[in-house]
Description:
The complex is a heterodimer. In chain A, 78% of the residues lie in helices and 0% in strands. The longest helix of chain A has 32 residues. Chain A contains 23 helices and no strands. Chain A folds into 2 domains: 269 residues, no CATH class; 217 residues, no CATH class. In chain A, helix 11 runs antiparallel to helix 13 and helix 12 packs across helix 15. By secondary structure, chain A is an all-alpha fold. In chain A, 57% of the residues are buried. By secondary structure, chain B is mainly alpha-helical. In chain B, helix 4 runs antiparallel to helix 6. Chain B has a domain of 229 residues. In chain B, the strands form 3 sheets. In chain B, strands 1-2-3 form a 3-stranded mixed sheet, sandwiched between helices. Chain B has a two-stranded antiparallel sheet with strand order 4-5. Chains A and B meet through helix 16, helix 18, helix 19, helix 20 and helix 21 of A and strand 1, helix 5, helix 6 and helix 7 of B.
Amino acid sequence: MKEQSNIVDGLGEKLSEIAGDLFYLGPEVTLAITIILVLVYDLLFKDKKEVGIFSIGFVGLVFALVISSFINAGTPFGGMFSLNMWNLTIKFLLILGGVLMLIMASRDQKNINRFGKSGELMIASLTVIMGASLMSSSTNLLMIYVAIELTSIGSYILTGIVRGRKRSEAALKYVLFGGVSSAIMIYGMSWLYGFTGTLNISDPTFFSGLSNVPILPLSIALVMTIGGFLFKLSAFPLHIWSPDVYQAAPTPVVALFSFVPKVAAIALLIQFVGAINTIDFDWQLWLGIVAIASMTVGNFSALWQKNAKRMMAYSSIAHAGFLLVGVIAFSESGNLALLFYAAVYLLMNYGAFLLISYFEKQTGSANINKLRGIGLDVPWLGVLVVIVMIALTGLPPTAGFNAKLLIFSSIWESWQGSGAQVLLWVFIIGLLNTVVALFYYLRIPYYLFFKRPEKEIDKAKLTSIDIVWGTIFVIPLLVLFFKSDWLVDFLNNINFVL
Amino acid sequence: MIQGILSYIIFLPLIAAAVVLCLPKRLESSYRIVTVVATGLTLLLTIIAVYSFDGGIAENINSEENLQLLEKSEWFSLDLGSLGSFSVDYFLAVDGISIPMLLLASIVLFIGAISSWNIRQKKKGYFALYLLLSGSVLGCFVALDFFLFYLFFEFMLLPMYFLIGIWGGPRKEYAAIKFFIYTLIGSILILIVMIGLYNSVYDPVRTGAEIGVTSIEQVQTMVQSGEVAREDIIKSFNMIYMADQANYIPGSLLSQMSGGEIIGKSARWIAFLALLIGFAIKLPSFPFHTWLPDAHVEAPTPISVVLAGILLKIGGYGLIRTAFSFFPDSAFHYSWMIGFFGVFSILYGALNALAQKDIKKLIAYSSVSHMGFVLLGLAAMTVEGISGAIYQMFSHGLITSMLFLIAGVLYDRTQDRLIENYGGLANRLPRFTIVVGIAFFASLGLPGFSGFIAELMVFLGAFKSSAVIGAIPQWMPVVATIGLILGAGYYLWTLQRMFMGKYWVKKAEWTERLKDLNSREYLMLVPLAVLVFWFGIFPDTLMSLINSSVEGFTDLLNQAIR
């Protein structure tokens, strides 16, 4: 009896601790409530649901965004999560990615219908964002697994929910790939648990446990675990699913895919490599090879793409490599560069997908050779495309250049400090990849301006509000080139901790 | 003397570009007027700047006292935590090396604007892009912060890409992307070095402010002896600081003292090579020249003029300003190779020119040949050699602009550029023939023209080199003289085939279209011809601007070698 009361006593304490810690998960809780609200609304109403669903989703996301900037750093739920200024900023960007996705979706009647028909699309999107947000801060292997699965399952639904043969095929591929990679990942995690006896990667026993393991089983376990993260990052060699998925899914959803899970996976990787940094396993070498391969394979494969969304899929594989560069640098300036890169990447990728969705609206498909001569008819749109593509390539005068400069500077510094050869190769090959990237990014402006239009396009479909939104998405890329300290200050001061 | 004159020079074309974009379509004919007025005003401002430039200031190239018309204010700075911080400046100034380039750029851009007069399609885009290009080209020559320089250097590629790709000849798309990709490879190499450099160089003034020391020398000694904490060091993109070895953070990879290595080779050598290749692509030197004939041939006439007249010079200017100034020891180490590629380019370009059937291609290859002299002069590392290289860039800019305008005159009338399709044009177009004669003789280096002075100085410097500094052997200038003979060969041969003998053209209908020069063409060609004469007869006009800076520059080289 006495023993049981002890447990109950402890339980009471634990419960109040958990309830107290709940505020740390404010954004996720907000999103969960929003999901329930959408669900209930969806059940109660029959027709014309789009306004309700959109506004609930939008308000929920904005609310989560606001809450995310009022959270303290800490390790709530007994070390299940580790929140610091850095990943709180990442969280802010992730949720911002969700807000911008809704704005993008609301620019196209087809997408409004898709979202409005039933609550599923909205719920799945919110789930992805919630999972990603959890992923970016978890330090417990089990929590990491749950967060990754939450993100993945939401993504599978988003890919397959709009009917169509292509889409079903892509969704099925995605599910199979995802299933296999998460099985491998959890197998790796089970090894890690076996080695250390703890699931908490920030626990000192986790580190000391791993230090005693021979290199071969340790490498196998770590490679399997990190493989699961790389799947979410869609880095080489776990990138094969992404082109099909990107081509099939609705464009705003693709924009979400290209940013939210990726950046969350990067945040997770930062936490994870921080936990395993000084043990025998040379993670910088492995991730360095992955980064080089992602950049090179992504860029070279993009050269042959005829569909803009498919091309962007390969581009996002290459950008996964660039994001990895910041992880490999593993320094304070590397983390700052990553934040900067992530913020700029958000702007340029969403800008690119917004403009692609305009072209889809005009020409009915995302095929690049359907874009002939549009730039001459709608010059402002063409100029916006040029700016976005130059930013994605990483050339001045766009913030894409500053992002590249910062991220590659951090790897140079790390190399200067440690002298590890792989860092030098990441640095050189990464920068030379820009040349390859230019070639395919310029293809869209090339068709827009250099080719003669085949037939008159219907200009009426594009309203001036569309153009204004395009401008709002794109102009920051120019402004932040000239004033990158604004973005850095903003990112450093996002948290108004009281 | 106008305050902030260099900013006006850069921003005037950019503002004009915005004006062109805002003007409604019914005022289409006014775009070209805006362009000509803007570039004209820029030229006027540049002449004022040149006039107020004092050529007598003889300071070291790596001190700010050497600079004139200086404008410097902080652009942005980023705090990188424990690794210190870095700052980027809006830093413009001229010295004896950049002022001739600035003058040349203004002249050629003005001529190019006049030459754009009869662009017929998509005028708004054309003139806006032309003005954007003008602003960034001018900015490139006066920016002394590496970040700012790189911005201008990269940004000119984009307008150029569209100008060639939309308004060019039959293979324009191919030429445009080839130009862009080639130059981008060069810029990436430069970017790699730029990242390495700003991580190795600190700003002594700002670092001094951080630790409360005002004397620059004292800050430098303190940093070199490791008394300054890492987070107090403020890194810098300043190109003047980069040229002073005392401003390198001790232990950083590119510092001369630390002897850093990359894959077993001196890091400074590798960095120098990367800069050398980066700018040699732009120059262009053999074996990186293959983009040039395509781009020149396909580009519309005004763009060819700007491309050959100014853009190539950025390659030479960049070599002097960055590679040679930052890594003088490595420059000396590789001087033999640079000289060799210079000589090879001279001969290879000339032999290629001899074989061309298309007159524009001939001129393009002659550019490769003439740019070889720039490399040869630089490799010599003597006062005469480097002055000659700068003089050659200036003179070639004027002459080659003339040559491309001439090719444009012919192409405007017949849409054909093949040498073999014409004969005895002197009978039909006597005045045009006189202008062609002047341009050809100037280009082959006849005394009395500016090209002669330039090549003479390069040869003097190259011959002296082995005795004075030991940078390149004597056989190099000897072999390079063959290039002069070949030059005379292809120009005289072309003159003979196209203009001498009995009048004959391939298609009969060309005859009535072949009218002699009109007044607009005179307006472009006559001033250029006068300038080519002027700088051939009174070289001191330009030399007095260049001289003291070049002496400062060679002092820097000599100090580093000893």
